[in-house]
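Problem statement: downstream parser choked on a complex file, so we are re-checking the raw output for the uracil run. The parser issue turned out to be on our end (a line-ending mismatch), but while we're here, posting the original submission so the record is complete.
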Amino acid sequence: MSGKVGEKQSRGQAPRKKGDAPAPVQEPMRIAKAMAHAGLCSRRDAERWIEAGRVTVNGKVLETPAHVVSATDTIVVDGKPLPQSGPARLWRYNKPKGLITSHKDPLNRKTVFEALPDKLPRVVSVGRLDINTEGLLLLTTDGALARHLELPSTGWLRRYRVRAHGNVTQDALDKLQGGVTIDGISYGPIEARVEREQGHNVWLVLALREGKNREVKRIAEHLGLVVNRLIRITFGPFALGDLASGTVDEVKPKVLVDQLGTKLAGEFGLRRGQLDRQPTRRR
Ligand code: URA
């Protein structure tokens, strides 16, 4: 595929109505994997929850995470049915500043998930953006896909536009190409260039492949800069493009298969030739 998804306006398909029926589990899989796919928790959490007796299958408390489940099983976690997962779905979202990327906030600040358009089913985010960061946040119905895409080993480049107070030379930015260690935390190779200067601020474009906590701000601080605006413009093959702030756009299943590759896409219930919409429901 040429270019990034979103650069050439990729339009999503018709939004699903709230009352649509859930799709069945695609194929038999271990219970912990099914719970992770449903976006409920990680596989490790699932194992702990099973040990703690919080999961039943067909009315029986489960004793082992090795249990294999299929479409005909009734899985209940903490008394609630597990949402059935159809093929993974993915959206580009233009996160406005002021929202936290968390399902719950102890400080009661507004979350991304409260702000999402109602038409979306239950989704999880691929990594996080800080409260004041804007721009591209990927959202998916599949928790295991989210974890896969956010892993540094997946190697997807995240590109940011950064407005920062202070001065920096291109020479100093070029030194970041070899990676940098700040307060004992190592960052891999960073591409950075000055886009323009604006009064006491400088606009930079910075790209890295990790996803560590506050990484752009820390790297900027290391250069003597204070970030006052941060916008993520790409994540792997997906671009923010001209998506309006606060809106979402679904990535077409076929595009997702192209980007993941047929084998990996199959693990997330996406198969070439079977890409008709199979709805999942928001919990
Ligand atoms: N780096 C940051 O400092 N914050 C973000 O939200 C993302 C990357």
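For whoever reads this later: The CA atoms of residues 184 and 216 lie 16 Å apart.
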